């Protein structure tokens, strides 16, 4: 409740404005029960604010019985005055400050209002942050406000800093996210300005001030100073923007950061004669990025070295054969395609070798998995089979021994294999396989499967095997392979076998003589790019003794 005060402060009950000026402006729309006690004064202030540039309001204080100010009532506003709600000019008149802007109470701005009204001394708040709740979300605005006691009321003028603050916030966030800052060297006046982020990048206390160009060059790693000098020379000579990377030594003592990798984007401002006046630069700390790139380069070099070693190891274990080769009574072509193209190591293998008794060992196998672990197990199996063959074991005995060895030494490994022993003297082929796809026999235009199955290697340590035999004829072809040739997601293995058989038959119908071997090999395209593939194609070429 407001009470009568000295005339200049009183807000009596509502009434019509009196006098010629009052008649001109009409009755003010004041809150119920309140009327302007000095309409002439108010009219004069309003006339003044109507021509005043910028944002301004004039308010009368509302006091309680003790004379303490409870609120301020806005009685005049300049046309450019605008509040946080978008109300402007006359729309602000008649409003109570705390009713419309309750968050002002108790702030530095409110205390300034009270002090100005009590002392008569002007006051100012350079940066007032006004906060209002908008749907549960704080809305912030920033203002610079000046206040003065005028004609018994409070005259406020203000400037909005919203755009500046938001721009500054965006710039700060950009610098933070990009880990960058800006630098300005004035070559004419010697004035130097660094943004706060540049001090952080270089570990320098802002109280010590920025570095001159000469000091910055001295703080640059010796090997990189030439890069900085060339960039500065180019700015002076051509004026073209420069982008370069250097390493900067710590400039904050032992507690500062280590050597920093910085990328600098610089441009020069030149006078009419072409001389450089100013250098503006953006400095970005790329230390983390550079270290990550260096680590990646080291890892890539290590990987390349491992790949070279893998290729060498692969060639030692199973040499790559680019052309067919001759064995007693046979021509042989082999191909190996690992799933891991980078490492060039896998679990699939083949063997085609002449034994000491003149027979030929032919074998293809597949160790579960691929990569270095599978290749290690593969090498052991391949050499074991070769050693057992030289001990004059038949294919069945070779697989039985191999199975026991695998169960004992590598119980974590499962493998499949097909092993054949060919005698060129009588063209007899003896073979068996352990969980492996059958080999194909192509004779004339017909392709059939040679079946003599046995259990997978590494499952039962007491597994036994038998072998089958067939007498081959001149120009017969044998196709031995691992399941990567026929296996495809969503397709039955037998369907894959049928497709390979059909492909071989089609190739043989269009090729004759020695070129049949390589033609069949070239037609053997793996169905799977996630599994290793081995293919061994064998052609019978020499007749037995006494055969025409």
TrEMBL record:
UniProt keywords, alphabetically: Hydrolase
SMART domains: PP2C_SIG (SM00331)
PROSITE patterns, per the entry: PAC, PPM_2
UniProt key word Nucleotidyltransferase: no
Residues in PPM-type phosphatase domain copies: 331-540
PAC domain residues: 242-298
Superkingdom classification of source: Bacteria
Protein name as annotated: Serine/threonine protein phosphatase
Organism the protein comes from: Streptosporangium longisporum
């Amino acid at each position: 409740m407001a009470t009568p005060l000295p005339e200049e402060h009183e807000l009596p009950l509502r009434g019509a404005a009196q006098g010629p000026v009052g008649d001109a402006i009409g009755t003010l729309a004041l809150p119920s029960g309140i009327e302007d006690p000095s309409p002439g004064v108010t009219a004069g202030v309003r006339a003044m604010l109507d021509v005043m540039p910028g944002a301004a309001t004039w308010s009368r204080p509302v006091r309680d019985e003790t004379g303490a100010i409870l609120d301020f009532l806005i009685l005049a506003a300049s046309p450019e005055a605008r509040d946080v709600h978008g109300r402007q000019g006359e729309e602000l008149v008649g409003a109570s400050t705390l009713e419309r802007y309750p968050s002002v109470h108790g702030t530095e701005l409110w205390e300034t209002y009270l002090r100005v009204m009590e002392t008569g001394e002007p006051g100012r708040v350079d940066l007032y942050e006004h906060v209002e709740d908008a749907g549960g979300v704080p809305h912030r605005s920033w203002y610079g406000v000046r206040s003065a006691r005028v004609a018994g009321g409070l005259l406020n003028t203000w400037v909005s800093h919203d755009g500046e603050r938001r721009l500054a916030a965006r710039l700060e966030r950009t610098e933070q996210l990009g880990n960058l800052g800006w630098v300005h060297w004035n070559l004419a006046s010697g004035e130097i300005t660094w943004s706060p982020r540049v001090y952080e990048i270089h570990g320098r206390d802002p109280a010590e001030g920025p570095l001159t160009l000469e000091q910055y060059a001295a703080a640059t790693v010796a090997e990189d100073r030439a890069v900085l000098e060339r960039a500065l020379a180019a700015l002076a000579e051509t004026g073209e923007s420069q982008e370069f990377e250097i390493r900067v030594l710590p400039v904050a003592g032992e507690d500062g950061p280590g050597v920093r990798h910085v990328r600098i984007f610089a441009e020069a401002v030149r006078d009419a004669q072409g001389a450089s006046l100013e250098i503006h630069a953006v400095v970005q700390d790329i230390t983390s990025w550079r270290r990550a790139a260096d680590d990646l380069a080291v890892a890539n070099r290590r990987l390349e070295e491992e790949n070279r070693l893998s290729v060498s190891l692969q060639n030692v274990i199973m040499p790559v054969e680019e052309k067919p080769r001759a064995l007693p009574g046979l021509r042989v072509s082999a191909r190996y395609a690992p799933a891991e193209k980078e490492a060039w190591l896998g679990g699939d293998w083949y063997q085609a070798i002449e034994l000491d008794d003149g027979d030929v060992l032919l074998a293809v196998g597949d160790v579960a998995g691929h990569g270095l672990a599978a290749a290690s197990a593969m090498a052991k199996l391949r050499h074991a089979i070769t050693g057992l063959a030289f001990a004059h074991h038949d294919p069945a005995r070779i697989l039985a021994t191999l199975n026991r060895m695998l169960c004992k030494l590598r119980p974590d490994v499962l493998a499949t294999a097909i092993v054949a022993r060919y005698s060129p003297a009588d063209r007899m082929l003896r073979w068996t396989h352990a969980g492996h796809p059958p080999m194909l026999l192509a004779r004339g235009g017909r392709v059939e499967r040679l079946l003599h199955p046995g259990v997978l290697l590494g499952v039962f340590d007491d597994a036994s095997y038998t072998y089958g035999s067939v007498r081959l004829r001149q120009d017969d072809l044998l196709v031995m392979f691992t399941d990567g040739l026929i296996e495809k997601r969503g397709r039955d293995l037998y369907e894959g076998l049928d497709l390979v058989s059909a492909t071989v038959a089609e190739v043989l119908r269009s090729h004759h003589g020695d070129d049949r071997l390589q033609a069949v090999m070239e037609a053997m395209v793996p169905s799977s790019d996630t599994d290793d593939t081995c293919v061994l194609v064998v052609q019978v070429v020499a007749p037995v003794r006494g055969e025409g």
